[in-house]
Amino acid sequence: MVIYQQEHSTPIETTDTRQFIFHVDLDAFFAAVEMREDPSLVGKPIMVGGDKDTKRGIVTTCNYEARKYGIHSGMSAKEAIERCPEIICVRRGHYDLYREVSDNILNILNSYTDHFRSASIDEAYLNLTDEVEKEHNGYPIPLAEEIKNEIFEEEKITCSIGIGPNTTIAKIATSRNKPNGITYVPKASIKRFLYPLPVKAISGIGTKSAESLKRIHGIENIGQIIEIGSEHEMIRKFGRLGSFFYRVVSGKGRTTIQPSSSFGVKSISKGRTFHGHMFDGEQIPIEMVLPKLIDSVHERLTKKSFRYKTVTLDVRFQDNFQNITRSRSFQAANDDKERIRTTVYELLAEINSDFNKAKIRKAAVRVSNLVKYDSMQKTITDYFS
């Protein structure tokens, strides 16, 4: 389901200052990965974390079937089991796998723009203003659908996307249509969008703050705050909190997305943990894993019309979990799949030589220093073809 917070198929805003901030939130992420790995869990209430036998521990996350019973992250395992006795408990989550899937998805998102910031293992912000304006005539829904489809095709994980003029509105929008939804709130529709929502919908307003607003001021929803009017009146009523409320309801907020991690440099990668997986009764070797990783990276590279200058192989050893990274850069950007393959195997040979063929549990192939392909520009290869 897609929510359109406007009646037009073209943007309401016509100024040069409009912004399209995307907030991407992976739906019930840990539980989603567990269901992907074990399809028998699909459609059943599950929780990650806690111990069903002892009823001890805390729910790290749960799927939407479990949430129908009022179960949520941070709840005690005891209460969760009391609410839903048939709930399935994944006692020891696959945290290495969660990080691996998250890294792959964050790299997908990072391939869309440099203006990208991961907020946690399962959410990220992107400023896609230029991409929406230039490639989609100022209308962001098709780009959001493209992102959702690519994530699902690559990792079989659904996500919800909120789009707004700043990070605050984008994050609120995401939560309005979960799971697997898109919500677009242009600046002209902010007050109409916020009006019926409870004050807890505003990030930073928790249960205690919401209870205080209701007890002291009789405020339960954002519409009551909007009705107060000016910033001056809001400050008179709520103190410093009033200034914060005014910024939210008037659409003032952060639009600059500063990279907060290694994903700040545009790259495309694909990784897999394979140690312990068997093929025809034998341990899967890295040489069997690499071709699929290379295919995936090259497919995304060409789909996004990028060319690369750097090829990287990341590995993690089985015995000591040491991470090793080897890269090779080229003077000219290209999209040659065979060069990726040759370079990756050369880097693997170097690692095997330097570390005495230590057992590898995880590998990731990455291309970076990306250049957007220009059909009018020839590469060195073109001149000799």
Structure in words:
Helix 13 packs antiparallel against helix 14. The protein is built from 15 helices and 16 strands. The protein has 385 residues and is of the alpha+beta class. Strands 1-9-8-2-7-6 form a six-stranded mixed sheet. Strands 10, 13, 14, 15 and 16 form a five-stranded antiparallel sheet that branches. A three-stranded mixed sheet has the order 4-3-5. The chain folds into four domains: 123 residues, 2-Layer Sandwich (Alpha-Beta Plaits), CATH 3.30.70; 64 residues, MutS, DNA mismatch repair protein, domain I, CATH 3.40.1170.60; 53 residues, DNA polymerase, domain 1 (Orthogonal Bundle); 119 residues, Dna Ligase, domain 1, CATH 3.30.1490.
What are the defining features of this structure?
single chain; 385 residues; alpha+beta; Alpha-Beta Plaits; MutS, DNA mismatch repair protein, domain I; DNA polymerase, domain 1; six-stranded mixed β-sheet; five-stranded antiparallel β-sheet; globular
How do you describe this structure in short?
The chain has 385 residues and is an alpha+beta fold. The chain has helices at 29-37, 64-67, 77-83, 95-110, 129-136, 141-155, 167-175, 190-194, 207-217, 222-226, 231-238, 240-249, 286-303, 337-354, 380-384, and strands at residues 2-4, 21-26, 46-48, 61-62, 88-90, 116-120, 123-127, 159-164, 182-184, 267-273, 278-279, 282-283, 306-317, 323-334, 360-368, 371-372.
